[in-house]
Amino acid sequence: xxxxxxxxxxxxxxxxxxxxxxxxxxxxxxxxxxxxxxxxxxxxxxxxxxxxxxxxxxxxxxxxxxxxxxxxxxxxxxxxxxxxxxxxxxxxxxxxxxxxxxxxxxxxxxxxxxxxxxxxxxxxxxxxxxxxxxxxxx
Length: 138
Known about the structure:
Layout: E1 9-16, H1 20-32, H2 39-56, E2 65-72, E3 76-82, H3 104-111, E4 114-120, E5 123-131
Antiparallel strand pairs: 1-2, 2-3, 3-5, 4-5
């Protein structure tokens, strides 16, 4: 069976546009990445990007969806969230210290070694790449 396994491995999850789907996406991510050094950061990124898709795009409408893809290698995790599009483009905002929103993309960019945003008002994909820290040789 190993001859059919590729590296990196890729998983996908389609989520209806409801808030409880972010919880399901986090749990799904945690299950796939169990034991991976990037698991905690990946789970937080999934939560932020999924929430952003529902809050700021057509993915949060009655018939909206968002799609989550995880690409996994021993040292790297790539997390992609694709939405149904809308306005405005994803951007970093300066949140007031007392605001309860407005930090999602900033958190993602602080955790990830690379963030790419592709697409347009008809649908976008935000991809965040995490790289595990190498253990120092002893």
